# Entry
Amino acid sequence: MFLRSKKLPLDGMHEECGVFGVYSTETRDVAYTAYLGLYALQHRGQESCGIAVTYANKIQYYKGMGLVPEVFSGEGLARLPEGDIAIGHVRYSTTGASSPLNAQPIVFTGKCGKMALAHNGNLTNTKQLREELIQDNAVFQTSIDSEVLALLINKYSDGDIVRGVIQACNRVQGSYALVIMAADKLIAVRDPYGIRPLILGKCLDDTIIASESCAIDAVGGNCIRDIKPGEIVVIDAKGVQSYFLEQQKKTASCIFEYVYFARPDSVIDGCSVYEARKEAGRLLAKHAPIDADIVSGVPDSAVVAARGYSEVSGIPYVEALAKNRYLGRTFIQPDQTTRENSVSVKMNALRANICGKRLIIVDDSIVRGTTSRQIVKMLREAGAKEVHMMICSPIVKYPCHLGIDMQTRSQLIGAYRTQEEIGQFIGADSLHYLTVAQLRQTCKTGCLQFCTGCFDGEYPYSLADFQADKYKFE
# Structure
């Protein structure tokens, strides 16, 4: 039996969550707008989701475990009233257990009345701040770092929620893209390094905030601009106003948004995700040419890159793997053996396309190596004469503590094996990666600098003492 509710380490990376907010100048069905936005952000989190709506100085919310259409099927969406403001959240947990209690948005009553908060990212000084708040007699209902943010905002508000947000955010470290809702305001905040994406849009008279531009497109809106690193955007009856947190000397946007997390139809900080992935394939073809018969991509994130490789190399693009479209990223396996054997359930080799062929297969990354090993094995059993693996990112050597659910360093194959040894482990005839410099080149149209800590260990925030075990080899 396969359980979605039990989260175990997978051979891959997972984004923590996605956020969405809408401010309407008229009372209308803002919950449905949020529903459409969350549906477009489903790829960012599949464990739980929720929507909160403000109306008549009250907040009503509905959230639960599962996918957006599952949680809001039947009467789920109908329970939410018409209102002026709504925020929504899809979650994949990195801090706090996967449980209904930890589903977001967080809704609470504070010094500024009813408020709600949704958070994408991961704080690195949560332990210190939680202990400080407990000393001030704060009571926590969840185990997530997002509640620390909510209680800090309330602590510093004193009747002015914007002041509370500014002071609270100046106390926290780590990654955060926030949407915060009060009775008459929608507030968006992006951390000073710009680690997690956040975008401002318009749909007729509605103002939209979303983790990705694809969600603004989904509700029929237009993207206005990216929220700047360290910017607090306040949307109310006065219009849109900006405030800024203490500035950093450089930015550090997560480059894995372009490699894997974001949808290919999104544009983040001026850089098209689609074009970045296609350029990754072009660079692989330029720097790692292979004499082969066909090139293909592991669906879905590497397909665009494979087409880029084909474009430069002249080797025809042919589909080698068919994906089970009804499985998605929620397929959680109960033990390591089952996880390693589950690749054949997620996808299958197209024997007629690859039998007797020398094949180049493009993928976004290798984390544990077990999935890549199973894919190579599957392709060989389907008759591939040669299998050459191309990876659209550098070797993953370090864990992440800024919002990506990545295992400890001991579970990363790149932390203790060379490129040649990884190639031998997965059984490929050859294995090639992009370098960090080449990966940065794929995003050259972007307006921010990047965090590449999972490749080189250079993070904008160092690990806290209680997180240091991520670096240990078990």
In short: Residues 1-10, 329-335 have pLDDT under 50 and may be disordered. The first strand starts at residue 17 and ends at 28. The two ends are 29 Å apart (CA to CA). Residues 275-458+466-471 form a domain with the Rossmann fold fold (CATH 3.40.50.2020).
